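Sample intake — DUF4390 domain-containing protein
Collected from: Candidatus Thiodiazotropha endolucinida
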Amino acid sequence: MKRGPYWLLPILLMLMLMLPLTQATAFTIKDVQIIQIDNVYQLNARIDYQLSEQAHEALNNGVPLTLKVQLLVEKVWRGFWEPSPFTTTLSFQIRYHALTELYRIVDGQTGDEQNFVTQDAALHALGEITNLPMVSPVKLAPGEAYQLRLRADLDIESLPLPLQPLAYLGRGWKLTTGWSQWPLQP
């Protein structure tokens, strides 16, 4: 009885799953400032986005990339049942238009669009968070220690469906800062 090459498929799949799935930490948080203006804590931050070779190639071939920034203000010592006084996710899409040779950024919250001549200029603009209102001090219990937790990453779920399995299994797609935290004292 002659077997086709299909018996190799489960073995190849298992080998791919056994590869180490390391995170590429090409995104870094450079600067975070928490300031209180008009009875609201505001965030100023600088995130350095460096794309992997795979993400860079996909972007330059017309695949839009979505970058998400997650923010949480929570008690340092809190029970799992206690809600966070502030949580939000910022979403931004970057896309390259070959016809105009421009990089376009779309703010997922407002729909605002900006065009840039270079990828570096677009990524630099994406990394600037300025005067983002977070939480009012009246929502924070006096005497409690709070922290701001921040993470930025490439949203693999927003990639085109045929590219998602490669992104989940490939090393160059897991672009994240990981969670970082800063104290916030009311």
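Post-analysis note: The first helix runs from residue 8 to 18.
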